[in-house]
Structure formats: structure tokens, C-alpha cells
Design a protein that fits this description.
Strand content: 15-25%
Number of domains: 2
Radius of gyration: 23 Å
Number of helices: 18
CATH topology of the largest domain: Rossmann fold
Structural class: alpha/beta
Number of strands: 17
CATH architecture of the largest domain: 3-Layer(aba) Sandwich
Distance between the termini: 22 Å
């Protein structure tokens, strides 16, 4: 089917992301198997795609030669919606994903311009891969479909589609922050990026701060655009089209997450964890390996708390889980070495018989085990230097089915705009301030902990991931 087919076909939802919502793995017998991925985006969109017989377009995540189309056709029939692959070469993956996406856009959008590598070859690859995605969309969608592009890897897709003559409604959602003008202006390809975003009918950001940063960039960089900001959904009008811009904070599946946290398996694993670290408060950090997550700063704050507040020694332990990520990028190897050096330093200085201050793990955890850590932890220490949203903060609160626990949250996480009233808000660069918050959380009364946690859970339940999808699609005029 093509986008030029008749307009009276039922409107379908087409989701486009860097990766498909499945993983392809070889079994013990050497056969390829297709496994569903997990995560809030997949959980929220897959039922809707099945209901509307929709499609998900993305890279299948493998570079080996194999019959991907045949595998995904069978997987599509089992799932009730179409999985359509975009095949990338090793060079394209290297220069588009590891290069432009994660060595330019990612650090720049997290206000870390010094970590950017503005290699022109990366820009060429970024354009080429976005063109590949656009071509796949053109070949596999109808004129009445709603095309929803996801995240910073694919910003140019909308502009390429328009240049190919596509008039379908296009939406884009940015899962990262959007930088202020003084940061964004450092991008050599700033005009191409911001003009590409204005080719969409609807652009969504995580927070009002990100939306406003985008509007400020338009005002600073573009002429001839009228911005109507009288409503929460802002309309930007140019000679060619109108683009609606809004903030849509993403979340998790509250009900499913809470139900699994209350399961017997999680309860048993929680009990084992508490028995292994008896008679002391547990502070938990769960972060992907990334310099935006502020893991070294967190460790320094914990060290500062132990140094300044002797009464918490032997009575508190930090469990820091670091999930491997982008290990092929040299800076990430350096970051891991720095983290592990700090862990060794803290444990070497403060450990006494029967007490280890920091328990460190560098691995991904199965869902049951992760939920057990959430339930066992008295305090969650979520201190990114900057984050689009940060779902760990929400996962911790939802997993606390006992309605107890304290959330310490960075003011630079997108989640802070929703959760700031009932968490302890900190500046992750303020080592002593974070240390003070740890000690405050340690001494907090049961009544206050439970009062705060009940309110946090209520807020997250009200605005779960299904609310996010509904709000975005409603703003786009798509009847889900």
C-alpha cells in the first residue's frame, strides 16, 4: 500500500522509532527468534496498534544478513499489527546512532556542549538514515494514516516526507529535554533541525520548560513565524503550515507496575534483600550508564554525608545499580572507570566489619529483581544533571505498595515538574545540599514519609502512560 491510496481507508496509527518494539535473537539451535521488548512506550502503544491494525517502523537491531522481512511478517501476524524494518548498514549505525544522535544531539540537548563531537560526516549519515526511514514510511502507509515519529534520532523524517509530497498528518515527540537558545545555537545544523521540527503538525515535549525553550529558539532564529501562545497548546504559523506545540509528560503503566510489585515473587525477593542488609536504611540509585545521570556527583554527595554526619555511619547503605549503555563510545568507558573508582574510594575509607557503605552493580536487572530493590529501599536517590523525564522516579513510587519511602529528586529531571511538592528536590551539582537531603530523608518520620508517598502515587496514577498517549493523540486530532 502507498500513501497515495484512497482517502476513505480507515485511519491507522503508524509509530516510527529508531528501534522496533521487538528484539531478534538466535536460539540455542541457531534459529532466529523474535521477542517483544518492554517499556512504557511499547506497553501503551501496542494495544492501540493492534486495535487499529497499525504499524511500527524501525531498525530491527541486527547487522547480520538474515531474512528479516520473513521473520517480522510472522511476528506481525501473531501480534495483530505490522512490524516494518528499516535496514541499516554498520557504517550508518555507527555514524547516525553512535555519532550524530549520541555524540551531538544527546549531549547538546542535555546542556553538555563540551562533550559534543561536531563531525560533518555524522550529519551526512544522520540525513541519509532519516531519508531511509522516510522512504519506508512512504512505501508502507496510506494518505489518511497518522504518522507518529519518536525522538531525537529521527527529527528530519518529517521534512523529508514533506519534500516527497506527503500530506498526511505528522506528529513528533521528543523524549529528551530541549535546550535553551544559548545552547542550541552552538549546533552547526541548528537551522535545519528547527525548520524540520516545524514540518510536523504536532510537536510534543516532556515539560513546559522544554516547550518554552523551543519557542525561544524559534523567536531567536527564525523570521516570518507567528507564535500564538495564549493557550497551553501553542500554534506556530508560517507561510507553509501551522504547527501545534505542547508539553505531554510521559509516564509508566501504573496498574501493571503496582500489581507486579505486589506479587509473591517480588515480596519474597524483597524480604531476602532486607535480610541481607538488616537494621539499616537503604538508599537506592538506578541509572543507565550516562554522563547526564550524575552518578559520580551522587557518589560524592553520599561520601560527603558519611564524612559530615557520623551518626548515619553503619546505619545506612547506598545500593547503586548502573545499567550498561553505549559502551563502545570512549567517554562511557571513562565514566564507568570514574564511577568504579569512587565506589572503591568510599568503601576503602568508610567500610567497617559488618558494614559496606556502597553496594555496586554494573548490569541490567530482571523486572522482578528491580521491583524488589525498589520495595526494599527506604530512599530513592534520583539525581540526573538533566533528564527529559526520568521514569525511575515514577517506578520507585509506584512499586512502593506499602505507601512508604522517600524520593530525592533532581530539580533538573523532567519528573520534578510533576513530583516536586512531595519529593525532596535537590540540585545535583550541590554536593552538600544532596548530602543534607539524604540525612533529612534518613531522619524523616513514618507519618511524613507515608503522607508524601501517598500523594506521589496518586499523582502518577492520575497521569499514567495511557493518559500520555491519549493527550498526544487527542491534540493531534486522532481518534484512538
Amino acid at each position: 500500500m502507498s500513501h497515495e491510496q484512497e482517502q476513505d481507508n480507515p485511519k491507522a496509527l503508524v509509530v516510527v522509532s529508531n528501534r522496533l518494539p521487538v528484539t531478534l535473537q538466535r536460539s540455542d539451535t541457531g534459529q532466529w527468534e523474535v521477542h517483544s521488548s518492554t517499556g512504557g512506550l511499547v506497553t501503551a502503544l501496542v494495544p492501540l496498534l493492534g486495535k487499529r491494525k497499525g504499524m511500527w517502523i524501525g531498525w530491527p537491531g541486527i547487522l547480520e544478513e538474515t531474512n528479516v522481512d520473513k521473520l517480522l511478517k510472522v511476528a506481525s501476524q501473531a501480534r495483530g499489527y505490522i512490524l516494518k524494518p528499516v535496514i541499516l548498514t554498520p557504517e550508518e549505525v555507527n555514524k547516525h546512532y553512535f555519532g550524530f544522535s549520541n555524540q551531538i544531539i544527546w549531549p547538546l540537548f542535555h546542556d553538555l556542549q563540551s562533550r559534543c563531537n561536531f563531525d560533518p560526516a555524522y550529519w551526512s549519515a544522520y540525513k541519509a538514515v532519516n531519508h531511509k526511514f522516510a522512504q519506508t514510511i512512504i512505501e508502507n502507509t496510506m494518505a489518511d494514516d497518522f504518522i507518529w515519529i519518536q525522538d531525537y534520532h529521527l527529527i528530519l523524517v518529517g521534512r523529508v516526507l514533506r519534500s516527497m509530497g506527503m500530506d498526511s498528518k505528522l506528529g513528533f515527540f521528543l523524549h529528551t529535554p530541549f535546550p535553551p537558545p544559548e545552547m542550541f545555537i552552538k549546533l552547526p545544523w541548528r537551522s535545519q533541525i528547527i525548520e524540520a521540527l516545524l514540518e510536523y503538525d504536532l510537536v510534543g515535549f516532556q515539560t513546559l520548560r522544554d516547550r518554552n525553550n523551543f519557542l525561544h529558539c524559534i523567536e531567536a532564529m527564525l523570521k516570518g513565524h507567528h507564535v500564538d501562545a495564549r493557550r497551553q497548546l501553542v500554534t506556530i504559523t508560517s507561510r507553509r503550515r501551522e504547527t501545534v506545540v505542547g508539553s505531554f509528560p510521559i509516564s509508566i503503566d501504573f496498574r501493571e507496575f503496582a500489581q507486579q510489585a505486589a506479587s509473591k515473587d517480588v515480596a519474597n525477593a524483597t524480604r531476602q534483600l532486607r535480610n541481607a542488609i538488616p537494621d539499616r536504611k537503604i538508599v537506592l540509585g538506578v541509572d543507565r550508564l550516562d554522563y547526564s545521570k550524575g552518578i559520580p556527583e551522587k557518589l560524592r554527595a553520599f561520601r560527603n554525608a558519611l564524612k559530615r554526619f557520623h551518626e548515619i555511619r553503619r546505619k545506612i547503605s547506598l545500593i547503586q545499580i548502573v545499567v550498561p549503555s553505549r559502551e563502545d563510545i570512549p567517554e562511557y568507558k571513562v565514566l564507568r572507570a570514574e564511577i568504579e573508582g569512587l565506589v572503591s574510594e568510599i568503601n576503602g575509607k568508610f567500610t567497617t566489619p559488618g558494614w559496606i557503605p556502597v553496594h555496586y552493580m554494573f548490569r541490567s536487572l530482571p523486572r522482578t529483581e528491580l521491583l524488589a530493590y525498589y520495595r526494599a529501599a527506604d530512599i530513592a536517590l534520583v539525581t540526573p544533571l538533566k533528564d527529559g523525564m526520568n521514569l525511575v522516579s515514577k517506578e520507585y513510587c509506584v512499586a512502593r505498595t506499602d505507601k512508604d519511602g522517600v524520593l530525592i529528586l533532581s530539580e533538573f529531571a523532567g519528573a520534578a515538574s510533576q513530583l516536586h511538592r512531595d519529593s525532596l528536590i535537590v540540585n545535583p551539582y550541590d554536593v552538600e545540599g544532596v548530602a543534607d537531603a539524604i540525612v533529612r530523608a534518613y531522619h524523616m518520620s513514618t507519618d511524613e514519609r507515608q503522607w508524601r508517598m501517598r500523594r506521589l502515587r496518586k499523582s502518577i496514577a492520575k497521569r499514567d502512560v495511557f493518559w500520555w498517549v491519549s493527550c498526544f493523540l487527542q491534540a493531534a486530532g486522532f481518534n484512538s
